[in-house]
């Protein structure tokens, strides 16, 4: 069966990719695994053989029905299939700053208070929004192992002077690492670009707690700055600092030069800038 391009469906066809995903996730029968977009169930069945429970969310009802039948036929009973859009399940808990309530996500997925891991071959279009949703919730997974577009994976692990908002968002909550490149030939239908397996481990909000920084203010500053990423920081931050002169002073107080650009800053420098602006502005 081939996927629907409208849903970004590209089904795995290389067994070594499935093996690499599972090995990287380091699964045991104590693990609950969330899989987004199980498609034909190639990965789902491999996950079920190693994890205690698999919760698979499939947007395409025809695929969900087909997978349900296949699992019943093979007497695989530790997989629960939810038909729906992962981005819409916790929609009632989303705030204007993109935070989600842990209880609603756990209730919607039936995870309860358990720790869980995310292992999935996700549609390309879903990547940024899915990562943001799973990282900002209090119900964060302890690890994510995903196949995503190779170019996006490279952006996620970027370091200064090539930082970007996606990299900052992921690296503030966890440790991303590219495991292996995956050629387009490992998917059907074949996408136009190559993919990569990426692991995001040690997921928590400890970065913000350790640095006594409010995540909402931190990302408000970052979004403003990266909205004009090729410009010097002073220009986009003038509005929240209370004018250009105050922005220059805040940037200097954070230990940054007057010509600093957002892609050049490390996580620690973002912390310093966020603290300075929080103390001196209307954030």
How would you characterize the overall build of this protein?
The protein is α/β, with parallel strands linked by helices. Helices cover 40% and strands 17% of the residues. It contains twelve helices and nine strands. α5 links the parallel β5 and β6. α9 crosses α10 and α9 crosses α12. The protein starts with 10 loop residues before the first strand and ends with a helix.
N-to-C span: 51 Å
Overall spatial form: elongated
Discrete helix count:
12
Per DSSP E runs of 2 or more residues, the count of β-strands stands at 9
Percentage of residues in DSSP E strands: 15-25%
Largest sheet: 7 strands, mixed
Mean pLDDT over the full residue set: 87
Q: Structural class, judged by helices and strands? A: alpha/beta
Q: Segments where pLDDT lies below 50 for 5+ residues? A: 1-7, 91-104
Strand order of the largest sheet: 4-3-2-5-6-9-7
How large, in whole angstroms, is the Cα Rg? Answer: 20 Å
List the helices and strands and how they pair.
Blueprint: E1 11-12, H1 15-25, E2 32-36, H2 42-48, E3 53-58, H3 61-73, E4 79-83, H4 102-109, E5 116-121, H5 127-136, E6 143-149, H6 150-156, H7 165-173, E7 175-182, E8 187-188, E9 195-201, H8 206-210, H9 215-226, H10 234-241, H11 244-253, H12 267-280
Parallel strand pairs: 2-3, 2-5, 3-4, 5-6
Antiparallel strand pairs: 1-8, 6-9, 7-9
Helix pairs in contact: 5-7, 9-10, 9-12, 10-11, 11-12
